């Protein structure tokens, strides 16, 4: 068997047998690296960052003091909570959507958070 064919079958077998979440994480990390975006695992509180990743979940929080919308953003290396204050819904912000975000990393209960990030939807990719 030619080396190229062996490599193809090795990659195909890997994609058929590995955990889908792990494959998705690796693909997101590679895409972020290629785009020049910062990795979530490398950023710290106070850093101004630009990241590329996928929304895992989106929640609307209608609290008595004011509405907010939260989303879990994952770039293949770590999760960051995105919070839009004063919003209950944002068109296009849905689970599975790929976003490029910009903002300052904060800390909330030991978790990375970005409040009111600037964002761009990247294509129509779904998980």
From TrEMBL:
One of its GO terms (molecular function) is DNA binding. InterPro entries: NucleicA-bd_Rv2694c_prd. It comes from the Bacteria. Keywords: DNA-binding. This is DNA-binding protein.
């Amino acid at each position: 068997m030619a080396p190229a064919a062996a490599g193809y079958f090795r990659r195909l077998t890997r994609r058929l047998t590995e955990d889908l979440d792990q494959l998705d994480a690796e693909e997101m990390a590679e895409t972020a690296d290629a785009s020049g975006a910062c990795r979530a695992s490398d950023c710290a509180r106070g850093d101004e960052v630009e990241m590329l990743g996928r929304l895992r979940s989106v929640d609307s929080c209608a609290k008595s003091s004011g509405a907010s919308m939260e989303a879990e953003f994952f770039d293949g290396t770590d999760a960051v909570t995105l919070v839009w204050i004063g919003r209950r819904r944002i068109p296009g912000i849905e689970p599975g959507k790929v976003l490029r975000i910009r903002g300052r990393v904060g800390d909330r209960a030991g978790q990375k958070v970005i409040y009111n990030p600037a964002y761009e939807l990247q294509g129509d990719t779904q998980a």
